[in-house]
Amino acid sequence: MSEPNKNYRVGLGVCGGIAAYKAIEVLRLLQKAGCDVRVAMTRHATEFIRPLTFRALTGAYVLVDDYDEGNPDPIAHINFSQNIDLLLIVPATANTLAKFANGIADDFLSSTYLAANAPVMVAPAMNVSMWNHPATRRNIETLKDDGVRFVEPVAGELACKTVGTGKLEDVENIAEQALKVLSLESLVLSQKSKTQDSRLRTHDLKDENILLTVGGTREAIDPVRFISNHSSGKMGFAVAEAAAARGARVTVVRGSTAVEPPAGVEVVEAVSAQQMFEAVIDNLVRASVFIGAAAVADYRPKNVAETKIKKTNLDSLTIELEKTPDILANVAERRHENLLVVGFAAETNDVAAYARAKLERKNLDLIVANDVSRKDIGFGADDNAATLITRTTAVELPRMSKRELADKILDEVLRLRRQQ
Ligand code: CTP
């Protein structure tokens, strides 16, 4: 778990659900990492755990209701909300999400949400039908638009004995995601006042809405088999993380990846090239930059078998493939006036020449060319080396971490934006 380097103040909101007891573990993990945690509970949460438990663990008054006789502070929701670096809700119930999404402030926690300037992260847990209900889906979309970060629930057996998505994410992961947001925010804030790092000291991408494709795609052969590739998603997620740290709003269309997305970015799942294409088109109108970092399969089986293909006595099997849509080229073709389009090119020889041809063929603003014949960089590695090619320039960069390269790519995007 990442170690914070200062005493972060976390407001932990606990809602009324069976997973409420897990908030105790999250509290302990945050405390172990050096955070100062204050707890607020909804009235229903106190049916599951007593405020006394949190009071004993934090040494502080646990807020449930501004109007409680024992409440030492008459404007507690204002004071509580102004003195935290993160508001973290564990578990977040459907009711609380609905209240947050609609600005209803009828108890301590919902008033605190409205009054808070700190980033907000919610870890929902609920019955699968409640999670999938269109009303909940709408509220989640609204909250994401409002900048609320989600630690999505996972699939598993739920307290109601049904199986499906709705189980609270692992407490370790919730604490880790919270600490990531805290480090990111404090990094950005500290960079504003100090000046050591040229990259993170400002929110220089705050006006950009960045849409990225990340990872590989899986093209079904039959219900159990697919064609895919080795893309780890590391490079794409490095760009997503760097862009979020620089204040951009980031949407990642994620194919198959081996690594977890960074905190603070919106993730849309896609499996096949076709699904990735549709998700990109759905999100394109609000994007100001499109970055195609995914290794999209160029071909897919023409006919997907409905049932598992069985072995026969034949020694060979032929699968006919057809072209998938070229997402990057399609985006460039439909581009609106302000959209900057960035692609990646993996080449083994004549890297710059092939990449430039790709830039022109697909009508891109920038292409990041990688030499994949080198063993020390590329798929799965933490480092990369690339040449950044625009219509008029080509800059060959030395080997560096994917995160550093991500910032170089974003610097180039910003340079192109300023030239517009
Ligand atoms: N790309 C895409 N949709 C596809 C294929 C590729 O969006 N169906 C994007 C990738 O995300 C990447 C760039 O296009 O940004 C790669 O271009 P591509 O022509 O696919 O490169 P290669 O697969 O290396 O093609 P070639 O074999 O022609 O070099």
Quick recap:
The protein has 420 residues and is of the alpha/beta class.
Description:
There is one protein chain. The protein is an alpha/beta fold and 420 residues long. 35% of the residues lie in helices and 22% in strands. The chain is built from 14 helices and 21 strands. The strands form six sheets. An eight-stranded mixed β-sheet has the order 12-11-8-13-16-17-19-20, sandwiched between helices. Strands 2-1-3-4-5 form a five-stranded parallel β-sheet, with helices on both faces. It starts with 8 loop residues before the first strand and ends with a helix. Residues 1-5 and 187-201 have low confidence and may be disordered. It binds cytidine-5'-triphosphate. Cytidine-5'-triphosphate is lined by residues 213, 273, 292, 294, 296, 298, 324, 326-328, 343-346, 358. Cytidine-5'-triphosphate binds next to helix 12 and strand 16.
How is the topology of this model organized?
Blueprint: E1 9-14, H1 22-32, E2 36-41, H2 45-48, H3 51-58, H4 76-82, E3 86-92, H5 94-102, H6 108-115, E4 120-124, H7 128-132, H8 134-145, E5 149-150, E6 154-157, E7 163-167, H9 171-193, E8 209-214, E9 219-222, E10 225-227, H10 234-245, E11 249-254, E12 266-269, H11 273-284, E13 289-292, E14 299-301, E15 321-323, H12 327-333, E16 340-347, H13 351-361, E17 366-371, E18 383-384, E19 386-390, E20 394-396, E21 400-401, H14 402-419
Parallel strand pairs: 1-2, 1-3, 3-4, 4-5, 8-11, 8-13, 11-12, 13-16, 16-17
Antiparallel strand pairs: 6-7, 9-10, 14-15, 17-19, 18-21, 19-20
Helix pairs in contact: 1-9, 4-6, 5-8, 10-14
The structure holds cytidine-5'-triphosphate.
Residues 213, 273, 292, 294, 296, 298, 324, 326-328, 343-346, 358 line the site of cytidine-5'-triphosphate.
